[in-house]
Amino acid sequence: MDIYTFLSQHGIAYQRFDHEAVFTCEQAKDVRTEPMPGKDTKNLFLRDEKGRRHFLVTVGHEKQVDLKALKQLFDVQKLSFASPERLKAHLDVEPGSVTLLGLVNDAAHAVEVFIDDAVWSAEAVCCHPLVNTATLCISHEGIEKFLQATGHAWRVVNIPSK
Fold it and tell me: What is the pLDDT along the chain (162 residues), one digit of tens a residue?
């Protein structure tokens, strides 16, 4: 699915910022040539021990997520990062490009979505458009419209930090 076509079809506005490929939040800060009008995010794609449940966790870029506390929140025995193969199969993105917008490719709704309350309360959110060579800034209303258009339920929680 072409993300720009999807956003256009659903009337979701965005500001696009092109940049060189980034794989970490620190790299993203280093390549900025202008301020972006939204909350910087990082996304974790996780799985339970048996690989039956998959989770997309979106937090502010500065947050250090406590995976031990997160497994209690998800009610799972073990929690780990999903493999690049699982990431490709569920969200059709490569490592370094994990994004809320990847949910456009999860037609089976197999991915559970958790958004940190600090991100949810932001006026706008910055996220990759399925590749890590650009960033889109989308209003809170636009993110909500996107999630509704993909048919994904989401939970807004205080993601535990270290």
Answer: 799 999 999 999 999 988 777 666 665 666 666 667 789 899 999 999 999 999 999 999 899 999 999 999 999 999 999 999 999 999 999 988 999 999 999 999 999 999 999 999 999 999 999 998 889 999 999 999 999 999 999 999 999 998
Query: Taking a C-beta distance cutoff of 8 angstroms, is the pair 10, 149 a contact?
Result: yes
List the domain boundaries for the chain.
Answer: 3-157
Range list of H helices, 2-152: 3-9, 25-31, 67-74, 84-91, 117-120, 140-150
Q: Which CATH number fits domain 3-157: 1.10.10.10, 3.90.960.10, 3.30.200.20, 3.40.109.10?
A: 3.90.960.10
Model pTM above 0.85? yes
